[in-house]
Amino acid sequence: MRWATLTLFSATALLLAQNINYQPDAKWRAPEEAAAKKNPLAEKPELAAGGRKLFKRNCVECHGDSGQGLKNAADLQLPIVQDQSDGALYWKIINGNPDRGMPSFSGIPELQRWQIVLYLRTLKPDNTEKTGK
Amino acid sequence: MKLLPSGMLRSKSRILALVLIVGGGAIVHAQEAPYFVTYDHHLEEPGNLEIATWTTVGLPRSGQKLFFAPFSEFEYGVTGRWTAELYLEGQATSGDSAVFTGWRLENRFRPLEREHWINPVLYFEYEGINEATKILKEVVGNAGISNERNAELASVHAHEIETKLILSSSFHDWNVSENFIVEKNLSADEGFEFGYALGVSRPLSKLASGEECRFCLENFNAGLELYGGLGTTNGFGFHKTAHYLAPVISWQVSNNSSIHFSPSFGLTDVSYPALLRFGYAYEIRGFGSKVARLFGGSR
Fold first, then answer.
1. Closest Cβ–Cβ partner in B33, B79, B255 for A107
2. Share in percent of chain B as helix, strand, coil (round to 5)
3. Which residues are CB-neighbours of B28 under 8 A, at least 6 positions away?
4. How many helices (H) and strands (E) does chain A have?
């Protein structure tokens, strides 16, 4: 009984922590060629710190400080986002989805966009919020 | 003690909240090109408001007068593909007077959803200005330099429509933009005027450092602009047209503000010898939703 309560509580906490307004756009998919691109900075994880700064400057307005998603923007911690390839995330940063409110960030230099992808990979669900610790 | 009616109190608190929203804004996106005249394909982010003040200073040839033409810009991202702007402009000339020269309402639309090699943007502007305008936000037609006094120039009003085809490309770290301009003065029978603006720019650093810093190279964006007139329907071409070559630089001073500077050099006899342009821009993110919440909306 205690385990069932705990499971139910955890599931509820997970649900509440996510952005319930977010509806993924099934049509917004990176072409195969773009999705297959490798992150040229993949071997330099230390550059994610710069990505974090760029994320704070450009992305937190809609995606929140820890990428949890605000307004109708995606929760970047979710598997539906994290399971996408680096190339797919990079393509989405470049192109945006203007009809759903996501602008194009093609004006950010190429390597800085890859730095943002590096940082996105570090986003993890904020357990302190969910467990109350 | 006199109590305010509740309606007035509510209005005052809304105005105060509006001031707090404006004063407490946050982040400007770091991808703006440093251009003064050329437009690229990046629009304002939906719901964000950018407030900017720009100034054009005209350095004279002998027999001409120094002028100082400031203008304010309010740029709002209506949707992901539509940005609207309001401009208010003025002008002061040495040995003459200072005058309000009018307003402009500008709209930019991005017809294509995705990023392409060349990204078109359609631009429509209505101008309610007078002939004393000297901000030189663009150069069209056969630009002559008038030595008439401000009082005479300001009394001649002009209702103008201006359209631009903006083409812009991102190649790695570079932005390359081309603007083709057509302007029609609805208040005078003078045909259409044509102009162009070309720009190329890039940030000074490819990578972002991990530290918060004001003077890091990644906060600077530099480039070059070339712009000028292409005559009118009565005489298309370069004859008696003004052209300028202008290095440009912008500095992201903080997350929500930037400073821009550009000296422009006149290339023909009918150009000003030099123009100095400088400006400061401040962006308020989520302005639309904050105002909507203030008035009971849920946007």
1. B33
2. 10, 50, 40
3. B50, B252, B255, B256, B257, B258, B281, B282, B283, B285
4. 8, 0
Mean pLDDT, range A24-41, rounded to an integer: 91
User: What secondary structure letter does DSSP report for A128?
Assistant: H
Query: What is the rounded distance in angstroms from the CA atom of residue A32 to the CA atom of residue A36?
Result: 6
**R_g of chain A, CA atoms, integer Å:** 16
Is the pLDDT reported for residue B27 higher than 70? no
Side chain identity at residue B123, one-letter code: Y
Identify the residue among B21, B29, B75, B200 best suited for mutation to test binding to A, counting A beta carbons within 10 A and taking the highest.
Answer: B29
Q: What mean pLDDT value characterizes chain A?
A: 82
- Strand (E) or helix (H) holding B27: none
How far is residue B261's CA from residue B249's CA, in Å, rounded to a whole number? Answer: 6
What per-residue string of b and e applies to A3-14 under the rule 16 or more CB within 10 Å gives b?
eeeeeeeeeebe
pLDDT of A22 strictly over 70: no
Would the CB atoms of B42 and A106 count as touching at under 8 Å?
yes
Amino acid at A124: K
Residue A20: pLDDT band with limits 50, 70, 90? low
Distance of CA A123 to the CA centre of its chain: 7
- pLDDT tens-digit profile of B196-249? 999 999 999 999 999 888 899 999 999 999 999 999 998 899 999 999 999 999
Q: Using an 8 Å Cβ cutoff, are B96 and B179 in contact?
A: no
Q: Which residues contact B264 (CB under 8 A, 6 or more apart)?
A: B36, B225, B244, B245, B246, B274, B275, B276, B277
Residue B66: phi, psi to the nearest 5?
-65, 135
CB contact under 8 A, B208 and A97: no
Q: Cβ of A109 under 8 Å from any chain B Cβ?
A: yes
Q: Which residue has the tokens 């003064």?
A: B36
Segment B155-180, tens digit of pLDDT? 999 999 999 999 999 988 999 999 99
Query: Which one is predicted more confidently, B269 or A9?
Result: B269
Helix (H) or strand (E) holding A69: none
Phi-psi label, residue B229: left if phi above 0, alpha if psi -120 to 50, beta otherwise: beta
